[in-house]
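Worked example 2:
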Amino acid sequence: MAYERIARAPRKYCEAGFTAVLLPPFTKGAAGAASGGYDKFNDYDIGSKDQCLGTPTAFGTAEMLRLCVAQIRAHQMQVYGDLVLHQYGGDVEGVYAPLGAVGISRNGRFPKHPSRFVGAPPRVPADPVPDSTGNFAFGDVAAYVHAIPAGIMCEGAIQAAGWLTRTTGVDGWRVDEVQGTNAALVHDLLQSDALREMWAFGEYFDTTASQLSTWIDALMQRRTAVLDFGFKFNVGNLCNNCSRIWMGQLAAISYCNVDPAKAVTFVESADTDNSPGEQVVWNTINNLIWIHENLANGDFVPRLDTDAQVFVHERIGSDGRPGCVCAFNNDQWNACTRTVQTVFGPNQEVHEYTGNGSYRNIWTDGQGRLTFTVPRNDNGMSYLVFGKPIGNVAFGWHSRSTTQTFFGAVDLDIPPLRDGECDVGWIWCAAGTRLSAMLTLERAGWNALSTVWLVPRVIHNVG
């Protein structure tokens, strides 16, 4: 399954220059292994309970999820999870009664009843949300403000997100469908103890800069970033227009030009698609990753934004990355020669890093201008990137440790301690790794002479 495949290949990703991996929703959907996870049934089932047509999620078991997270982090990449708050699926007349730890009784933590969802009585009115017109009804829409009793859904969601964070060891979160989720709940959840220091970004399905700015600045108090749907749609239009689009619009293409620090650009849906063949990373982007990580930094300065077919901008460099000049030609029939001003300086040697043109190194003129010819748009390979020669800098990585907490309780997915042996969970580590373990007990009602031993056993070897 997906978790195990990713866990076996993180070195390939980090050496290609990837710095983070976004994983699909951890919680199992109502359709079990056939679900992408957006029809969440139980907040405390990450492929660890035999419910919803089986134990694994579509992507693997809880053990494989923890292995996947640990492996990615061990290769110095960030791991982000996909947090679903907006909706649930798999109810029986509005009742969600998940299994407990033993797997027999439906006594699982955070059960739900009709008065905690939006709808006609006994359900409750819709919450105040950032955009009520974008509050799409996927499954049962959760009510956080109007839930009965008051506060129960907010408290339960925050506790569940903390459990997910601590038991997996992730670095941050994508929050699904935030335009239809009460903003105070999202803000308070991201400011809770377990998530306060984590990076997060929201899926706000809107391209209006003022809407996104209101959500980020006023409602989130700049606690989170946001997916830039304007970038996705405008780039899509650009790629599908048969050379009939004005390239100058790239100077102000989307929210990334308004608030670059809080805009998360993307070109395809960050929702997980289970369709065969959709989970693909093309080898041709490896070089672009290298350019991004080694050259592209600093302010975005348009250098040619009045041309119908060619757009040129410069990243002027910062934080040790020297910057670059990027040129794009949308003309499917003609190569285009252009001259632009740069900050490289007069009579400076620069290197072309994409290999799309016939260039190796060229020089700026006495005024620091650069003249070049961008290839015609043949299958999208009509772009050039120029920068100061810096040599072939390979991506390196240093291993990071991961802390994962196993919680035991009758209403979770691991039972509480009892007389005799109790398997708590699997710990994944490379040979020679130093392990640290701490056992924290709730001793209420215990005999004063009770003794607990924490005994590790080697039970599986992953190649």
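The first strand starts at residue 20 and ends at 22. The chain has a mean pLDDT of 90.
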